[in-house]
Amino acid sequence: MPLPPALSALAEGLEARARAAESVAELGISMANDSFAGVPFRQALVFDAQDRLLTVSGLAKPTEDSPYLLWLRRAWPWVREQAAAAKGWLAPTDEMLRAAPEGVAEGWREWWPAGACVLPLARRGGEPLGCVCFLLDQPPAEPVAALLARVAPTWAYCWEMMAGKPRAGWRGRWRRLGRLRQRLIIAALVLLLFVPVRQTALAPAEVVPVDAMEIAAAIDGVVKTIHVRPNQAVKAGDPLFSLDDTTLRNRLEVARQSVAVADAELAAASQLAFNDSRSKAELAILTGRAQERRAELAAVQAQLARVDVTAPYDGVAVFADPDQWQGRTVATGERIMLLANPDKPGVLIHLPVADAITLDEGAPVKLFLTVKPLSPLSGQVTETSYQALLSPEGVASYRLRAELGETDRAQARLGLRGTAKLYGDRVVLGYYLFRRPLATLREWSGL
Q1: What's the Cα-to-Cα distance from 181 to each of 126, 187, 192, 193, rounded to whole Å?
Q2: Concatenated DSSP letters for 84-117?
Q3: CA distances from 187 to 182, 191, 192, 193, 362 (A)
Q4: How does pLDDT run across 403-434, given as a tens digit for each residue?
Q5: Carries keyword Signal (predicted)?
């Protein structure tokens, strides 16, 4: 039927605004708001082909977590199907609402009027683009229906032009290849699974000395002074640290006095032994006591000589903050620092158990230092462990040691950290890709 002049002018305006829209979102706002002059709706909603809400009339951006929109997300697929069966106008009866999914009836009675007019929009080829839903108290009059029928093709055309060509799904692309190409692709993928590749694993690593010597406390005591700074280069004979010697010096003085007393007693007994047989019998006891006091004195002197610890050879003193050791009580054999040779750096690697691969001594390693991520250092594994221990990060890991090549040692400073890439045996690509899923499946199934 021909449109009245007022509705015809409104239709021309709606079409002009649709053609002037620069995006699908802008077109949706125009469809949901500008059409109110000809369609007296309570609310207008615009959905895309995936049932996603694009526009709500009167709102610049819908609040996705509101109760109304949460209900609308659940109810819209049912509303769209019922409206398509009713040819656009849906006014559900009580029986239809009772048969609807859970929560649809309560939400309809609370938020929506008597009916909904659903206007589907599709591409020229028939593929759906979306829908415009007008909430009305009564079915649209014939002039209003004619108005929507006129502007719907323009809305659909503009939406199609701005949305672009639809992307075919993987299933559609696969079907268009044909049986011969499908078989060739499957055969190529199967053959690809048998291509030999090398197993690799990534693990945190740290540059450590290869032949570092532990410098430990030689006796029980209290650390008095640390003579060097962390990572300081020292020469053979340079003092490293000293223990407090107050107690030992007191014991030394007591031991000296004890020796003097024992010597005096032995001298007196020796003089009396010529005339007194009784003193002669005590002479052996006093001689042993004097020797015992001298042994005690020698032991204290030996302990006092160990108070000051010096470097046995040239190297670098590796330890933490010296303030942590100042005044601390240490036991015999407790490590205080390492004396490392900076010219022989190695790599300490913590390989997580979950990433473990078969590694033999001599396996190649690449070390990517954090300070030089684009210049990897090459080396080889020299030591592997059979027992997993907790790494500093608290992850069960195997401790590996590697040696760097001659040309790369100068770039590896002690203490630097990075990531080591370990290279194992060659396996087929299928095993490399499905090793972890197969291991997980075996743990889950127990086979």
Answers
A1: 29, 10, 16, 19
A2: HHTTTEE---HHHHHHSPTTHHHHHHHH--SEEE
A3: 9, 6, 8, 10, 37
A4: 888 788 778 877 788 999 999 888 898 888 88
A5: no
Quote the longest CA-to-CA distance of the chain. 157
Top-confidence residue, 154 or 441: 154
- The tokens describing 111, both together, are 């938020």
* 66: DSSP letter: S
CATH T-level fold of 212-241+308-340: OB fold (Dihydrolipoamide Acetyltransferase, E2P) (2.40.50)
In the numeric block, the tokens 């706002």 are attached to: 29
pLDDT in tens, 12-39: 999 999 999 999 889 999 999 998 888 8
Domain 344-445 has CATH 2.40.30.170: yes
The rounded Cα 35 to chain-centroid distance in angstroms is 51
291 pLDDT higher than 90: no
Q: Are 201 and 384 in contact (CB under 8 A)?
A: no
